[in-house]
Structure formats: structure tokens, C-alpha cells
Amino acid sequence: MLRQIFVEHPESVGETYLVHQRTAFGFGFSMIVGGLACLVHGLIPSLCLHTGSDTISRLHGRMAVRRTPAAKAGVVAASKA
Questions:
Q1: Is 3 within 8 Å of 11 (Cβ atoms)?
Q2: Is pLDDT above 90 for 71?
Q3: Helices marked H in the chain — which ranges?
């Protein structure tokens, strides 16, 4: 049970639990900052013109680069299920 909760997913993307935690925290913090920038932009349209979309593009690029061939195969297999 504990292995399923804490180990299986990080291993499926080629990471240890702690590496996966650090990566997820980094993504989460970036998403919070990007989201706050979008809220500021909604209030004052002349501010944070590209921050939200730049954040999304940067995070997508990081996620796509980090995927190992085994992880990519797992994603494809999971999406077909």
C-alpha cells in the first residue's frame, strides 16, 4: 500500500520520491506565481502581459524534456486504457 502511494508513480517517470517531490514543488510554485500574474493582469491589463503564457510554455517544455522513454511509453499505455 505505501509503495503504491509513494513510490510507483515517481518510479514510472524515472525519479525517486524526493526528486519527484522537489520537481512537483517547483512546478507548483511556478504555477502559483503564474496564476497570481494572471489575476494581476485581469485587474490591470497593461501589467503581466506574458507572464501566465510564458509560465505555461516554460513548464510544458520542462515536463516534456524530463520524460524518459519508459515514462513516455507508460503515458501512452495509460492513455489507451
A1: no
A2: no
A3: 2-6, 8-12, 17-43, 51-66, 69-80
